[in-house]
Automatic annotation (TrEMBL):
It comes from Corynebacterium stercoris. This is LGFP repeat-containing protein. Keywords: Signal. Residues 46-74, 185-204 are annotated as: Disordered. InterPro entries: LGFP (IPR013207). The keyword Signal applies. The keyword Cell membrane does not apply. It holds the Pfam family LGFP.
Protein backbone atom coordinates (compact mmCIF):
# COMPACT_ATOMS: atom_id res chain seq x y z
CA UNK A 1 0.00 0.00 0.00
CA UNK A 2 2.75 2.31 0.89
CA UNK A 3 4.64 1.38 -2.25
CA UNK A 4 1.61 2.16 -4.42
CA UNK A 5 1.23 5.55 -2.82
CA UNK A 6 4.87 6.30 -3.32
CA UNK A 7 4.65 5.19 -6.97
CA UNK A 8 1.53 7.21 -7.43
CA UNK A 9 3.15 10.23 -5.87
CA UNK A 10 6.21 9.80 -8.03
CA UNK A 11 4.05 9.56 -11.11
CA UNK A 12 2.18 12.66 -10.08
CA UNK A 13 5.41 14.52 -9.52
CA UNK A 14 6.74 13.36 -12.88
CA UNK A 15 3.53 14.41 -14.58
CA UNK A 16 3.58 17.78 -12.90
CA UNK A 17 7.23 18.25 -13.79
CA UNK A 18 6.50 17.36 -17.39
CA UNK A 19 3.64 19.81 -17.49
CA UNK A 20 5.83 22.54 -16.02
CA UNK A 21 8.57 21.74 -18.48
CA UNK A 22 6.11 21.71 -21.34
CA UNK A 23 4.62 24.96 -20.14
CA UNK A 24 8.07 26.57 -19.88
CA UNK A 25 9.00 25.40 -23.39
CA UNK A 26 5.77 26.77 -24.83
CA UNK A 27 6.29 30.11 -23.11
CA UNK A 28 9.85 30.23 -24.39
CA UNK A 29 8.61 29.54 -27.91
CA UNK A 30 5.98 32.25 -27.61
CA UNK A 31 8.54 34.71 -26.23
CA UNK A 32 10.94 33.77 -29.01
CA UNK A 33 8.27 34.19 -31.69
CA UNK A 34 7.18 37.51 -30.17
CA UNK A 35 10.75 38.81 -30.01
CA UNK A 36 11.41 37.68 -33.58
CA UNK A 37 8.22 39.31 -34.85
CA UNK A 38 8.95 42.49 -32.91
CA UNK A 39 12.53 42.67 -34.15
CA UNK A 40 11.42 41.95 -37.72
CA UNK A 41 8.69 44.58 -37.61
CA UNK A 42 11.04 47.12 -36.02
CA UNK A 43 13.75 46.46 -38.61
CA UNK A 44 11.22 46.64 -41.44
CA UNK A 45 9.78 49.89 -40.14
CA UNK A 46 13.29 51.35 -39.64
CA UNK A 47 14.35 50.46 -43.19
CA UNK A 48 11.07 51.82 -44.58
CA UNK A 49 11.48 55.06 -42.62
CA UNK A 50 15.10 55.45 -43.74
CA UNK A 51 14.13 54.74 -47.36
CA UNK A 52 11.28 57.23 -47.19
CA UNK A 53 13.56 59.87 -45.64
CA UNK A 54 16.29 59.31 -48.24
CA UNK A 55 13.74 59.41 -51.04
CA UNK A 56 12.16 62.56 -49.66
CA UNK A 57 15.59 64.22 -49.27
CA UNK A 58 16.58 63.27 -52.82
CA UNK A 59 13.27 64.59 -54.17
CA UNK A 60 13.67 67.86 -52.28
CA UNK A 61 17.26 68.23 -53.56
CA UNK A 62 16.23 67.64 -57.18
CA UNK A 63 13.24 69.96 -56.83
CA UNK A 64 15.38 72.67 -55.24
CA UNK A 65 18.02 72.38 -57.98
CA UNK A 66 15.35 72.58 -60.66
CA UNK A 67 13.88 75.69 -59.07
CA UNK A 68 17.31 77.34 -58.83
CA UNK A 69 18.06 76.50 -62.47
CA UNK A 70 14.69 77.89 -63.49
CA UNK A 71 15.28 81.05 -61.49
CA UNK A 72 18.70 81.54 -63.07
CA UNK A 73 17.28 81.06 -66.55
CA UNK A 74 14.46 83.50 -65.80
CA UNK A 75 16.97 86.07 -64.49
CA UNK A 76 19.07 85.81 -67.64
CA UNK A 77 16.04 86.56 -69.83
CA UNK A 78 14.34 89.01 -67.48
CA UNK A 79 12.90 92.18 -68.96
CA UNK A 80 11.54 95.25 -67.22
CA UNK A 81 9.24 98.04 -68.26
CA UNK A 82 10.81 101.38 -69.07
CA UNK A 83 8.56 104.46 -69.14
CA UNK A 84 9.51 107.21 -71.58
CA UNK A 85 8.90 110.94 -71.28
CA UNK A 86 5.79 110.76 -73.48
CA UNK A 87 4.22 108.09 -71.27
CA UNK A 88 4.89 105.22 -73.66
CA UNK A 89 6.56 102.10 -72.30
CA UNK A 90 9.10 99.63 -73.64
CA UNK A 91 10.43 96.31 -72.36
CA UNK A 92 14.21 96.31 -71.88
CA UNK A 93 16.74 94.02 -70.17
CA UNK A 94 17.39 94.69 -66.48
CA UNK A 95 20.94 95.71 -67.39
CA UNK A 96 19.62 98.76 -69.25
CA UNK A 97 17.82 100.01 -66.15
CA UNK A 98 20.86 99.30 -63.96
CA UNK A 99 23.05 101.37 -66.29
CA UNK A 100 20.52 104.21 -66.29
CA UNK A 101 20.53 104.19 -62.48
CA UNK A 102 24.33 104.28 -62.43
CA UNK A 103 25.08 106.94 -65.04
CA UNK A 104 22.04 109.02 -66.00
CA UNK A 105 22.03 112.47 -64.41
CA UNK A 106 18.82 114.18 -63.18
CA UNK A 107 19.61 117.12 -65.47
CA UNK A 108 19.18 114.84 -68.49
CA UNK A 109 15.45 114.60 -67.82
CA UNK A 110 13.37 111.55 -68.72
CA UNK A 111 14.42 109.19 -71.55
CA UNK A 112 12.76 110.10 -74.83
CA UNK A 113 13.42 106.96 -76.88
CA UNK A 114 14.88 103.47 -76.67
CA UNK A 115 15.97 101.12 -79.43
CA UNK A 116 17.64 97.75 -79.82
CA UNK A 117 20.45 97.82 -82.39
CA UNK A 118 23.49 95.67 -83.24
CA UNK A 119 22.74 93.30 -80.36
CA UNK A 120 22.62 96.11 -77.79
CA UNK A 121 20.36 98.88 -76.49
CA UNK A 122 20.50 102.67 -76.73
CA UNK A 123 18.40 104.93 -74.50
CA UNK A 124 18.13 108.52 -75.73
CA UNK A 125 17.89 111.62 -73.53
CA UNK A 126 17.80 115.29 -74.47
CA UNK A 127 20.95 117.27 -75.32
CA UNK A 128 22.86 114.37 -76.91
CA UNK A 129 23.01 112.18 -73.83
CA UNK A 130 22.65 108.43 -74.22
CA UNK A 131 22.84 105.26 -72.16
CA UNK A 132 24.10 102.14 -73.91
CA UNK A 133 24.01 98.51 -72.80
CA UNK A 134 25.00 95.21 -74.34
CA UNK A 135 25.19 91.88 -72.58
CA UNK A 136 28.79 91.24 -73.69
CA UNK A 137 30.09 94.73 -72.82
CA UNK A 138 27.91 95.94 -69.97
CA UNK A 139 26.61 99.49 -69.79
CA UNK A 140 28.10 102.92 -70.41
CA UNK A 141 26.99 106.50 -71.04
CA UNK A 142 27.94 108.30 -74.22
CA UNK A 143 27.33 111.94 -75.08
CA UNK A 144 28.38 114.99 -77.04
CA UNK A 145 30.54 114.88 -80.15
CA UNK A 146 31.76 111.33 -79.57
CA UNK A 147 28.16 110.14 -79.31
CA UNK A 148 27.23 112.07 -82.45
CA UNK A 149 30.13 110.56 -84.37
CA UNK A 150 29.33 107.06 -83.20
CA UNK A 151 25.57 107.19 -83.78
CA UNK A 152 25.98 108.72 -87.24
CA UNK A 153 28.85 106.41 -88.16
CA UNK A 154 31.20 109.30 -88.90
CA UNK A 155 34.38 107.90 -90.47
CA UNK A 156 33.19 104.35 -89.76
CA UNK A 157 32.72 104.99 -86.07
CA UNK A 158 30.17 102.20 -85.69
CA UNK A 159 32.82 99.61 -86.54
CA UNK A 160 34.26 99.96 -83.04
CA UNK A 161 31.16 98.38 -81.51
CA UNK A 162 29.56 99.41 -78.21
CA UNK A 163 31.29 101.59 -75.61
CA UNK A 164 32.98 99.89 -72.67
CA UNK A 165 33.23 102.89 -70.33
CA UNK A 166 32.53 106.64 -70.16
CA UNK A 167 34.72 109.05 -72.12
CA UNK A 168 37.85 110.41 -70.42
CA UNK A 169 39.92 113.59 -71.02
CA UNK A 170 43.10 113.23 -73.06
CA UNK A 171 46.19 113.52 -70.93
CA UNK A 172 47.47 116.45 -73.02
CA UNK A 173 44.21 118.36 -72.62
CA UNK A 174 43.52 118.29 -76.34
CA UNK A 175 40.08 116.68 -76.09
CA UNK A 176 38.42 113.42 -75.03
CA UNK A 177 38.50 109.76 -75.93
CA UNK A 178 36.29 106.77 -75.28
CA UNK A 179 37.05 103.05 -75.42
CA UNK A 180 34.79 100.70 -77.36
CA UNK A 181 34.65 96.97 -78.06
CA UNK A 182 36.88 97.14 -81.12
CA UNK A 183 38.79 100.38 -80.71
CA UNK A 184 38.50 103.99 -79.57
CA UNK A 185 36.99 107.27 -80.73
CA UNK A 186 39.01 110.37 -80.05
CA UNK A 187 37.51 113.86 -80.22
CA UNK A 188 40.32 116.37 -80.17
CA UNK A 189 42.10 119.19 -81.92
CA UNK A 190 44.46 118.20 -84.67
CA UNK A 191 47.74 119.91 -83.86
CA UNK A 192 47.52 123.53 -82.70
CA UNK A 193 45.32 124.83 -79.91
CA UNK A 194 43.17 126.80 -82.36
CA UNK A 195 42.64 123.87 -84.77
CA UNK A 196 39.11 122.56 -85.09
CA UNK A 197 38.04 119.44 -83.23
CA UNK A 198 37.48 116.27 -85.20
CA UNK A 199 36.65 112.66 -84.54
CA UNK A 200 39.40 110.10 -85.01
CA UNK A 201 38.39 106.44 -85.10
CA UNK A 202 41.06 103.95 -84.07
CA UNK A 203 40.19 100.28 -84.56
CA UNK A 204 42.02 97.42 -82.85
Amino acid sequence: MLNRKIVASAAAVALATGLVACSNDEQAAVVSETATATNTNTATETVAAETETASSTATETVTSSAKESGAAAAGADATQELTLADGKTALVPQGVLDTMDEYAEPTWGEPTAVEEIDGGWIVTYDNEHYITWKESTGGSPIWGAIADSWLNDVRGARTVGFPLMPETPNTDGSGWNQEFENGTIDWSRDGSADAPFKATVNTK
